[in-house]
Design a protein that fits this description.
This protein has helices at 30-41, 49-52, 97-104, 109-116, 121-137, 161-174, 204-213, 233-238, 295-318, 323-337; strands at 3-8, 14-20, 57-61, 63-64, 67-68, 73-78, 141-149, 152-153, 181-188, 218-223, 246-247, 250-251, 256-262, 272-275, 282-285, 339-343, 346-350. By secondary structure, the protein is an alpha+beta fold. The chain is globular and about 65 Å long. The chain binds flavin mononucleotide (FMN). The site of flavin mononucleotide has 18 residues, from α9.
Amino acid sequence: MMKYLTAGESHGELLTGILDGFPAGVPVPELFVQEQLRRRRTALGRSTRQQTENDDVKITGGVYEGRTTGAPLSVLIKNSSRKKPEPSGIIRPCHADYGGMVKYGLEDASLVRERASARETVVRTALFAFPLYMCGISGIRISSEIISLGGKSLRPCDNRPAEKAEKIIADAKAKGDTAGGEFVLKISGVPAGLGSYSQGFRRLFTEYAEELGAIPAVKGISCGGVDIADIPGSVMNSAPECTGGIDGGISNGRDIIIRCVVKPVPGTAVTARTSDYITGAAAEICSTTSDITAVYAAAVTAEGAAAFVTLNAILEKFGGDSLDEISSRLSVWRQRHGNVISVSGEENRLK
Ligand SMILES: Cc1cc2nc3c(=O)[nH]c(=O)nc-3n(C[C@H](O)[C@H](O)[C@H](O)COP(=O)(O)O)c2cc1C
């Protein structure tokens, strides 16, 4: 089973992370890691900070001659935007500032901000690129799609969703505001039988929810692409794919569909009323350097998070420490049980 830890501050020298338990023998996907970081950095709605960062990643452990060794993988990403944080007692609303100062007994919100910042997700994105790559070479495809932004639908059936998204972002920016939204993750090719109903914490959906809910600004997670609360049970039973590929805590071989709700970025150029933690005096705050939306960037990190959970569930079910070992066990399982996948609305059993 894999575990990971990250360290580093938003404007410190560098961010670093360790992924323990990743199998041996996987080709090191250096270009793929960089591509995931590029997608996160250049995602729609990001701030100008992203133009100063290049997210050059150095893989410093767990690899030898182009393959993983089974030792902990470690990555380093230097910050280009480095500065000593300005001490401040002003609480930014809807951020970790207040809770962080209370919890750690700090009188300077910048110390909270430096670690609570979503800049940390750059390391997760780099680490998660390894399981994402391994899922890919194991026949598991993971993709994300933004389905709403700023309260407006962006489903593919909507007229020109990409242009609509650009306009929503431009309008929000012009008003000094920010936008939330929703994305859907699709995980295809997952064998049936991952996860368990034996304990609540072993349910596969619990595992996805934990990892996806750990992404800053993600505030809601549901299984299935449809508004399941709105349909009668009879309709659900006749379209079982709408429960999103997990029933009773176990994958059923269909596409796993998970929908995530992302809140609007709290740092806006519209002045917000708040207070000073130290003096208790009323204060005002605004930000002109924040992202306009985190939805697109969060979705990139979420693809990796979904791969981390999926690969961990595979490791739990089949065991194995190397790519060869895991691939052969997976292949025996697939030959025996197949994957039920949905093609143009019809179910095909792959043998
Ligand atoms: C990729 C990404 C970028 C973000 N950028 C900003 C930002 O520029 N300004 C901001 O105020 N919040 C930003 N956020 C949201 C905050 O990190 C988040 O709302 C805050 O840390 C409070 O945590 P919570 O929303 O998970 O409760 C971003 C989130 C993500 C995932």
